[in-house]
Amino acid sequence: MGLLEELTAETGVLPETITALTKEEMENRVREIKRVLGKKLFIPGHHYQKDEVIQFADAIGDSLQLAQISSQNQEADFIVFCGVHFMAETADILTEEHQQVILPDMRAGCSMADMADIFQTEKAWSSLQGLFGDTIIPLTYVNSTAAIKSFVGKNGGATVTSSNAHKMVEWALGEKERILFLPDQHLGRNTAADLGVAKNEMAVWDPIRNELITDGKPEDIKVILWKGHCSVHENFTEKNIEQVRSTHPEMKIIVHPECRREVVEKSDMNGSTKFIIETIENAPKGSSWAIGTEMNLVKRLIGQHPDKHIISLNPYMCPCLTMNRIDLPHLLWSLENIIDKKPQNTIKVGKDISHFAMLALDRMLARA
Q1: Among 181, 205, 231, which residue terminates a domain?
Q2: pLDDT tens-place string over residues 12-71
Q3: Would 213 be classed as within a structural domain?
Q4: Measured in Å, how far apart are the chain's first and last C-alpha atoms?
Q5: DSSP state of 13
Q6: Which residue range is the domain that position 82 belongs to?
Q7: Which of 54, 182, 204, 317 would bridge with 226, disulfide CB 3.0–4.6 Å?
Q8: Quick check: 140 pLDDT over 80?
Q9: Are residues 297 and 197 in the same domain?
Q10: Which of 312, 335, 362 marks a domain boundary?
Q11: How far is C-alpha 237 from the chain's CA centre?
């Protein structure tokens, strides 16, 4: 790799051969490369991606769904994943050895996933084992690094999605007395509360202070929530709901379970990205909705459903900043490198990590 290529991969700085092009020229070039590569290329695009990127996606969906679709497409030699780093990792774990998973911009990470690194997790596990002995099973949201998925798989646990979190938490509580839920405290808390776990039966593990935070008795704890969150969904507030109730009393409020507990409690409905999309699609004409999730998706739903009144629950919400690292120029740059036979930003998960991460995924899929 040359110096310019290294700089581009690490900082996202693009060569002038890309930046000098107009938007139309970039779009035409992407279409041409897609035509040339044909079935050798597959572009999955997450729901939160910009329209300038999503227009070229061969499949649109949630992170795990896209990784699974990628694994089923064994004709593709190159999977250019338009999402964030942990999604590309999961795709690499599930796809075949000959397939290369590429992330157009290596800066496209996930703040939630970054809130639980493997060193913090292993340290926490040791401390919690000292407190509770062999009574804990770990669960991790798929929005986590491959190393965390591997840790969970190695210790008898499983992954969860926002769609199946209730089922997986029920399963885990049948396996052990307690759960360590990584890395999103809000999804864990909302799921546990829906299943009847009382507030005093939940505790929060603070990885920075390396301590357990609880108002109850340690022996009563059933769910230990990792102190992590989605920087987008945590910004929806009770005040946002009060404002909508005041100005649009007819509106239904639907939010993602990555939102704070008080926001979920005061909304009309909550569920996964898929649930939100399907609810809006199936809603009657003329219905009104305030949606508490990522802004790119909300804007797309507004455009797709002109027969309904749709707004963001927080009108000042910004799109997910890391998701937005993937843009049209970076997508084109990735494709040009494939054409030049020097693909960049290839995501490769080591076999030892992949093995145990697959165990965590398989335990979930077996109960899906």
Answers
A1: 231
A2: 689 999 999 999 999 999 999 999 999 999 999 999 899 999 999 999 998 788 888 988
A3: yes
A4: 42
A5: P
A6: 3-109+322-348
A7: 182
A8: yes
A9: no
A10: 312
A11: 21
Q: Do 66 and 81 contact (CB within 8 A), yes or no?
A: yes
Whether residue 117 is found in the same domain as residue 102: no
Q: How far apart are CA 10 and CA 2, in angstroms?
A: 12
Q: What are phi and psi of 91, to 5 degrees?
A: -60, -40
Same domain, 85 and 139: no
Angle between helices 185-194 and 165-175 (to 10 degrees): 80
Are 14 and 99 members of one domain?
yes
- The structure tokens listed for 363 are 């335990």
The stretches of the chain forming alpha helices (DSSP H) are 3-11, 16-19, 23-37, 51-54, 63-72, 85-94, 111-114, 118-132, 146-154, 165-175, 185-194, 238-247, 261-266, 273-282, 295-304, 328-339, 351-365
* CA–CA gap between residue 317 and residue 290 (Å, rounded): 13
Q: What is the DSSP letter of 215?
A: S
Looking at the structure, do residues 254 and 276 belong to the same domain, yes or no? yes
- Return phi, psi of residue 335, to 5°: -70, -40
Q: Are 186 and 229 in contact (CB under 8 A)?
A: yes
Rounded to 5 degrees, what are φ and ψ at 139? -125, 145
Q: Which two tokens stand for residue 50?
A: 């910009």
